Amino acid sequence: MMPKFHSFLFVSVVVAVGTASRMFAVESALVFEKDVRPILKAQCFHCHGEDGEKKGELDVRLARLLQKGGKSGPSVVAGKPEQSHILEMLKSGKMPKEGTKLPDEDIAIIERWIREGARTARPEPEDPDKAPLFTSEESSWWSLQPIQRPEIPAQNDSRGRNPIDAFLAAKLKEKGLTFSDSADAATLNRRLAFDLTGLPADTVGEKKGENYTDSEWSALVDHYLALPAYGERWGRHWLDVAGYADSDGYNEQDTIRENAWKYRDYVIQSLNADKPYKLFVKEQLAGDEMAEKQGLNQDAPDAKARARYAELLTATGFLRMAADGTMTENTVLARNESIVDTMKIVGTAFYGMTLNCAECHDHRHDPITQKDYYELRAVFEPGFNPKQWRRPMERLVSLQTKEDKARAAEIEVEAKKIDDARLAKQEVFITEVLEKELARRPEIEREPLRKAYRTVVKDRTPEQVALLKKNPSIEKLNGSSLYLYDTTYKTKHADELKKMAEEAAKIRATKPQEEKVQAFTELPAKNGEFPKAFLLHRGNPENPTVEVKPSDLDVLAIWRKTEIPEKTSELKTSGRRLALAEMLTDGEHPLLARVIVNRVWMHHFGTGLVKTVADFGHLGDTPSHPELLDWLASEFMAKGWSLKQLHRMILTSYAWRQKSDRDELRERIDPDNRLLSRQSKHRLEAEALRDALLSVSGALNPKRGGQPVPVSLTEEGRVVLGVDTRDAAGRQTGKFVSLEGEEYRRSVYVQIRRKNPFEIFAAFDAPDMTVANCEIRPNTTVSPQSLLLMNNPEMREFARLFAERILKGHEAAPVEELVSAAWQIAYGRPPVADELKSGSAYLQQQIEQYTREPAKFENALGVADAKVAPPKVLGLAALGQALMSANEFLYID
Amino acid sequence: MLTRRNFLERGYGLGGIALASLLKEQGLLANSEIAAEGSKVFDNHPKPPQHGFGRARAMISMFMQGGPSHIDLFDPKPVLDRLDGKDFPGELKFDDAAGASREVMAAPWKFSKHGECGMDFSELVPHMAGIADDITMIRSMYTGVNNHGQSINALHNGSILTGRPTLGSWVCYGLGSENENLPAYVALTDPRGLPVLGVDNFTNGWLPSVYQGTVIRSKEPRILNLDPPKSLQGAVQGRYLDFVGALNQRHLNSRPGEQELEARIQSFELAARMQIAAKEVLDLSDETEETKRMYGIGEQPTDDFGTRCLIARRLVERGVRFISIFTGNQTWDSHSNLITNLPAACAYVDKPAAALVRDLKQRGLLDTTIVHWGGEMGRLPVIQNRSGAAKGDRKTVGRDHNTYGFSMWVAGGGFKGGHVHGATDEFGHRAVEGIVNHFDYHATLLHLFGFDSRDLTYRRNGVAQSLITDLNARVVSELLA
After folding, report:
1. Closest Cα in chain B, distance from residue A98 (Å)
2. Considering CB atoms only, which of A4, A9, A782 is closest to B267?
């Protein structure tokens, strides 16, 4: 496999984005640090200053050095643009040599700065190499500043319910917009149900009137939040970030990850329990260290303590989610790739920064150095330990208790006794058969044959070998062929031995089950030393340079602690991850809370306050409502880091309850709806779509947790739900194993094979996790999706189940009644008059067609039904499939 | 109705204003004729080009993601033979310092001249050499962003950022499709995996969803769910489609301006028509053995790429507007093992790519179909030695990225045949003559499709956006027949 040089994707310079924000530079004089340095840093430092590189003896990192100049004389002459060499080079496009010509705006800024006297914001440092790594302009980037608690604006819209509305309405007013009307009760109920549970609305939210009262609404929010389906829905969102899959990926083998699902269940359960996000993060980064600190282990006397231990270890599975090819390709490169992907996941999840851009060199745009990257990686180094790499199967942690282990050993002794007895018996039988065989040979051959047989194979003389060859029924006599002689001699040796083997197996079956989890743990320190971490030159694992010490991002050191001790006396492990987790969750970290509230916001509104939910840096989006983002983050932390509380806050806002319709004014002023003068319509995600299909067809199997529902490949090459019955060579055997209702479980429980994504998921943009993780899902509208809705065998099965559900007990009902029921079930509303009319006509015609031309139902798996189906069922299935294919089903208003 | 003045005033988003300020009055005015009002319906109905000079009706781009080594294939540099093993005399721009060296490596393969025009090809691409007189070799390509992602973006969407619409989407936006029974914009992906940046290689970005590239799968079944189950065939499904269409139309009527809902309606209509049309186009059984042999179908290593090239020709024959054929993730990215990787990568595509041009020509389709073959970069003239091989041992060494000067070829649709354009320096490192950057390349393509490069615009956030973001982009008329 070719290495994936992700890091190289980010190396070079970007011209379009940085410029825009500078266009509004205030009229005060430009200064080097704020206005000029960012341009030069992205375009010029590489050759003129950084890493000892000073082409043409020119260093452009300081204004003073620009004035000093290089071989071609001073680059900048303060106040005299016409004498400043740099402008000549930039305007002519001679520089930068390697990139495209600088945009005119950038050159204009530099020119203006020179004309205004080439000012600096403050005296420049003596030595540019020892200068602070970041200028205050760089380190003052918004997302790296302490989270503020902004003043809540006055509520200027009488419909506003809470501070969220106050912040939004204030901005809307500035732009000449107001909130839209509230959506009606049915729309809101459906929107809310899918938002919180990923399933259609249930009957609790049904409302006769147009609108909910505030207390009804709050109760409904609480109702859905309390359903276990909430954790399944929002857990799936987190699994995107974590890069969850049930296979190892990396290469074509794509080995199965037997225990990954335990982490999936951990996530779902944690969300359902409304585990404070702070704790959720801590457990995933350092559950093993928390357990040790709390004295928890698999031998804790109390079952609850043991369960907590298991939970904490399972949580660290987060750090083992990345693709990992080392089961089949255990190379330095493959190991490093897995670590790089894990760092990417950590970056997305907790920092919302493109940390991975600093893997090979300093981040070109954000104040993150390459050293930072490796200092952060050093936190995880003792666990990864690439020198003593443990392959996925080798790092599973057993949860078996000491007692159980001992008990298992005792049972093994018992079983072994029977094994031994069986082997002894077998030997007796072999001797018996041997003698019988010999007895059939001439007297003279018997002793040499006996001797030859009893001689160990490698010690046999050529004569003995030849002799045995002549007597295959003696040569081939052994434990596994013994049964063949039962027929010859009318004995029952095989049966007797088999019984003994079964007895041993039965005893072994009484051993306590050994459960294993895929965890992130550290090997014990060698002589008190943990593996050293190094900066890898250009990200190359074969090329370590300087040693680095664990630390959070240096840029934060200006206002908070960033050092992470290399080890702690409190723990057997290094304690680095626990220290990082505590640092991230101390309530002051500028990124963690902002990143999660923004992500939650995105799932409620379709777009984050910061659109680029995984990039809060210079190349990302800036917040549409910075004060609101900070207020939400601070409120979130103040309310105990409760995600459910955050949901309540957002969902009970007026803004969330608005209509989603577009109109001319809104389109003109705010076509992307960043100001939220309305809600947005969106398509159901792949999983929610399938779950909705299961739900309305009445098939949904509510079973929670446990082993994933397997996927397999059909002969045709489709990836379907099913037990893989291909033979060792990958050929279809045609054997069909029933899933016994497992195929109707929620989508979050369907196995994710990175190389063979389930068809419905792949078609509707679910991630296949062949890259580290999924920051934001794409949203495509292509005809293969329509073909799936039209023709896919699973879709057909949903339609059939839908029909059978409606007909059950109403076999004789008139067509209109069936149509009404179908509408109610599919859309949660009765049909209006003309829908009822056209729906009934459609159903009637389909029934008539099927009466004229009887048909059978095909099945998603296995062969078609033997008998033709009743026309009414077929017709109703055709109606159900249409309703379930239509936009009213696929989209949320 | 918006006037230019008020939408500039109201332009939200800083980037928007920055861009707006770059746009010429002319561009903005032209935009108002094409681009949307809120509820305009976007579709793939055929539309006339803006100008009569459009000669191309379709394009097939064979995108060699990873970066084929121009100095080993198309751009011979005798100086390198002299300097082989010596220190590189000039300045070099590396991307990947792992194993970076200044040791010159001459092309390990022989070059010779081909066709009446005498175009140079190395022995690795004998079939391409055979179509020398039909193609224009551009030896002075330049994107200047030395890494895969940005350079891929530059060539696909005209900017180094991800998320903008790709060339194919723009062409379909401007011209629609001649065949409304098939997707207007098709991506034929490689069984070895998607290229770097995945689906962004054929995304519609912020153009309406109907301009998205549709994937025809890399293996059978090429399109899933093309056949209705028996119980739905015939009139049953016809009624189903009408009924779903009516439901969706009613739904859309009360939700004006929702382009995605409209796109979904169209995707159903297309899907219905595709059931017959796509089956027909993907069924190669009516192709002669001779044709299949020409594409290398039925033999290795050309079977896959040959089949996809033949499918592309069949799509073009039926009026599909834009087709991208991709090679696998980083197939051409030979940082090491050049000596084995490059011949393997060439052998996979050489015969089929040449066959495609020949076949289009013999069917009279080449005049109206642009064919492109190339990647996002070339390679450096020096050794990259990641494995630390001993001096002189060339078995495991490779070459690093080079986006400052590289080659690709184009044919048909109004491009010259038998023409070599531009040149790199004597080492093949930097384009020095007739430089063609991605802006120029796009301007030239749009020109061939009948668009003045900046007139093809789409209004977004009150700003007329175009594929080409650089006002200096020029139509490279030297390339045109």
Report:
1. 6
2. A782
Q: Which of B93, B209, B330 lies closest to A781 in CB terms?
A: B209
Dist CA B352 CA B374 (whole Å): 14
**Per-residue pLDDT reduced to its tens digit, B403-423:** 999 999 999 999 999 999 999
CB contact (8 A) between residue A778 and residue B203: yes
Q: Which of B200, B216, B223, B224 to mutate to test the interface with A (most CBs of A within 10 A)?
A: B224
Q: What is the pLDDT of residues A359-384, one digit of tens each?
A: 988 887 899 999 999 999 999 999 99
Give the largest Cα separation in chain A, rounded: 120
The letter for the amino acid at A572 is K
How high is the pLDDT of residue B388? 72
Rounded to an integer, what distance in angstroms lies between the CA atom of residue A585 and that of residue A571? Answer: 20
**Structure confidence at residue A210 (pLDDT):** 81
CA A366 – CA A699 distance, rounded (Å): 50
CA distance A840 to A843: 5
B190 in reach of chain A (CB within 8 A): no
Q: Are strands B419-421 and B135-142 parallel, antiparallel or unpaired?
A: parallel
Q: Any chain A CB within 8 A of the CB of B8?
A: no
CATH 3.30.70 fits B4-222+297-479, yes or no: no
**Distance between CA atoms of residues A106 and A86, nearest Å:** 12
Chain B contacts of A718, Cβ < 8 Å? 221, 224
The 10 Å Cβ neighbour count of residue B349 is: 29
Distance CA(B260)–CA(B252), nearest Å, equals 10
Q: Where are the alpha helices (DSSP H) in A706-764?
A: 759-763
* Residue ranges of A 96-115 with Cβ closer than 8 A to chain B: 97-100, 105
CB B295 within 8 A of CB B307: yes
Residues 213 through 232 of chain B touching chain A, CB cutoff 8 Å: 214-215, 219-221, 223-232
Domain assignments of chain B as residue spans, ordered by start: 4-222+297-479
Going from N- to C-terminal start, the domains of chain A cover 6-131, 276-399+522-588, 414-513, 790-892
What is d(CA B145, CA A700) in angstroms, rounded to the nearest whole number? 51
pTM, to two decimals: 0.79
Integer Cα distance of B436 and A627 in angstroms: 46
B225:A788 CB<8 A? yes
- Residue A786 to residue B268, Cβ atoms within 8 A: yes
**Residue A174 in contact with partner chain B when CB distance is under 8 A:** no
Give the distance from residue A71's alpha carbon to the nearest chain B alpha carbon, in angstroms. 17
C-alpha separations of A340 from A237, A358, B145 in Å: 22, 11, 23
Residue B464 phi/psi, 5-degree rounding, is -80, 115
CA A439, chain centre distance (Å): 70
ipTM of the complex: 0.80
Q: What secondary structure letter does DSSP report for A435?
A: H
Range of lowest pLDDT (A288-292, A425-429, B15-19)? B15-19
Largest CA distance in chain B: 75
- Say how far apart CA A652 and CA A202 lie, in whole Å: 19
How far off is chain A from B166, nearest CA to CA, in Å? 14
d(CA A89, CA A73): 13
Count CB atoms within 10 A of the CB of residue B461: 20
Q: What is the CA radius of gyration of chain B?
A: 23
Spell out the alpha helix ranges (H) of B324-436.
338-362
Give the residue with greater pLDDT, A106 vs A679. Answer: A679
> What are A673's two structure tokens?
């709806």
Q: What is the pLDDT of residues A153-192, one digit of tens each?
A: 999 999 999 999 999 999 999 999 999 999 999 999 999 9
Contact B457, B464 (CB under 8 A): yes
Q: Do residues A316 and A555 lie in contact, with contact meaning Cβ atoms separated by under 8 Å?
A: no
Supply A595's token pair. 């990143």
